[in-house]
Amino acid sequence: MKDLLDRASAAYYEGNPILSDEEFDRLAEKYSYNKVGHSTSGGIPHLYKMYSLQKFFSLDGVCNNLEDYVSTPKLDGAAVSLLYVNGKLELALTRGDGIKGQDITDKMSHLVPTEILSLETIQITGEVVCPSSVANARNVASGSLNLKSIEEFKTRPVEFVAYDIQGDTDFRTWIRAMLALEFQGFKSVYKFDATGYPTDGIVYRINDYEVFLEMGFTSHHPRGAFALKEQKKGVVTKLLDVVWQVGKSGVVSPVAILEPVVVGEATVSRATLHNIEYIRELDLELGCQVEVIRSGEIIPRIVKKVVDL
Length: 309
Prior knowledge:
Elements: H1 2-13, H2 21-30, E1 44-45, E2 54-56, E3 69-75, E4 78-85, E5 88-94, E6 100-101, H3 105-108, E7 122-129, H4 137-144, H5 150-155, E8 159-167, H6 174-183, E9 187-188, E10 199-206, H7 209-215, E11 225-228, E12 235-246, E13 252-263, E14 266-272, H8 276-281, E15 289-295, E16 299-306
Parallel strand pairs: 2-11, 8-9
Antiparallel strand pairs: 1-6, 3-10, 4-5, 4-7, 7-8, 10-11, 12-13, 12-15, 13-14, 15-16
């Protein structure tokens, strides 16, 4: 299972996810998988490391005083860093493994201000997002950053939403920093209307920058921020059969034939199984009970075998 999750993690950061967020979260929790990002060969270092957020599925016992936190939507796109030196955009990088990323300055210069009123060296981080009305919006956002053609990139319905700034600044609070970025022509997650955009939870962050920095960081996460995610419950049904089909790319993959069941507003009778390793890891067998979700409210997927009903 670790190999599958490693591949899924790499595919996610490369813009071609093979598992949905719901699937990845459930499998990562079940198998205690906490690896973040993936190694980026030949990448360029971020000025400041791009950390991930620790995930929780309940606020119980997470923090003592939520009044110290600001909550914003957790946008589901592609994380990017922007480096400004003496007010000019010098470098834009994909997240990569959080330490190094790929140079996408040519593309980001069409989404963000190339000059700002600042003589300091700062790194602005944020998310490139695509409207939910576009099919596979998250994939489009990530994949757009890998395009070779700038002209094609300019046709993509993507935009950049800032969520942090680091460097030689004197902002006392995160809110003031976001308002300053908006004044400079950026969109910030503080005021961004996420309606109509993919989200996968809520971010809680300490507003006071001094307190945030004093809390420090683990090797993966800031201690002053976290993500609250909703773990969607699936529907239980019976696995009747497994058939193999050839996809458009020529890859042969297994498909579950299910006892028809209503998931959301759709009747589901088939679900993706990815590959034989996935079947083995979930210990699936004909006639067993399985939990099914609709990934992105569209694609039916089996997330686990249900032993006790």
